[in-house]
Amino acid sequence: MDQENQTTVTEFFFSDFPQFENSSLLLFIPLLFIYMFIVVGNSLIFFAVQLDSRLHNPMYSFISMFSFLEIWYTTVTIPKMLSNLVSEQKTISFIGCLLQVYFFHSLGVTEALVLTVMAIDRYIAICNPLRYAVIMTPRLCIQLSTSSCIFGFLVLLPEIVWISTLPFCGPNQIHQLFCDFEPVLHLACTDTSMILVEDVIHAISILTSVSIITLSYLRIITVILRIPSGESRQKAFSTCAAHITIFLLFFGSVSLMYLRFSVTFQPLLDKAIALMFAVLAPFFNPIIYSLRNKDMKDAIKKIFFSPKTLDVSGS
């Protein structure tokens, strides 16, 4: 194939977005509301943890980091979706598409690592409480958070560099709501058998995290059930309930998206899974962490009301 054909495609077209006159505004408004809620809700959680000294412990530090990542994770895809709903030019440049894939997956891998660290943190806190403060030191928490970010943003670089070297000579229509590995690789004018290798790599990383988290929470539940005091048992369950719910939402949608290998879904179902993965799971994060946690609710209230006002209302 000559060089001219190899460099033909400079942008991709999102072909499955409705035209603006075809009621796309009905999709734009709820998606905009969801995005604003994700940004505001996760920002409140992040600042509540930073500003309230009672929440300066490993568990809330990891929750704060996860909320911070959720803001950027959704910002990589949702604003472009909103733009595609109201714009006639539903395109993205080749470089822009690769950057969207890179940051979307880098942030996703980092979130998966943070969820894994959170599960290990809860395992130590409940299964080995006497040594918790000795093991989960502030220095270790910083190291775990930093290494999660570094690994998450480095592990995807080889794949992105490899894709950038592939020839794309048409067609250029992406049948998905955002740029992702498989839809982009299917457009390459070369042997795409490496897609299977990509699937295996993603499956191994996903299943590794899922296995560690599942084993941690199974052990935690076993220990909790042995607690003689009903009140202590309920408090321990309540502490882990939010983590388990976020774990199921995040990895449930990830598994549907990336653990299916050659299995294909109907286009509408495929996009519904993508929305659940990229939009709905982050939407529920602030709801779960704020509504099920009294300390978090009190900390968020302190952002809007002075402690003196809260004391008066509480009395």
Outline the fold blueprint.
Layout: H1 3-6, E1 11-14, H2 20-51, H3 58-75, H4 78-86, E2 91-93, H5 94-127, H6 132-135, H7 138-154, H8 157-164, E3 173-174, H9 181-185, H10 194-225, H11 230-258, H12 267-291, H13 294-304, H14 307-314
Parallel strand pairs: 1-3
Antiparallel strand pairs: 1-2
Tell me what the structure shows:
The protein is mainly alpha-helical. It contains 14 helices and three strands. The chain has helices spanning 3-6, 20-51, 58-75, 78-86, 94-127, 132-135, 138-154, 157-164, 181-185, 194-225, 230-258, 267-291, 294-304, 307-314; strands at 11-14, 91-93, 173-174. The protein has a three-stranded mixed sheet. α5 packs antiparallel against α7 and α5 packs antiparallel against α8 (157-164). The model is unreliable at 1-5 (pLDDT under 50).
Count, helices: 14
What low-confidence regions span 5 or more consecutive residues with pLDDT below 50? 1-5
Structural class: mainly alpha
Instruction: Give the overall form.
Output: globular
- Compressed to H and E, one letter per element, the order equals HEHHHEHHHHEHHHHHH
Distance between the termini: 78 Å
Mean pLDDT level: 84
The order of strands across the largest sheet is 2-1-3
Largest sheet: 3 strands, mixed
Number of strands: 3
**Beta-strand residue fraction:** under 5%
Rounded radius of gyration (Å) = 22 Å
Oligomer description: single chain
Level of helix content?
Answer: over 70%
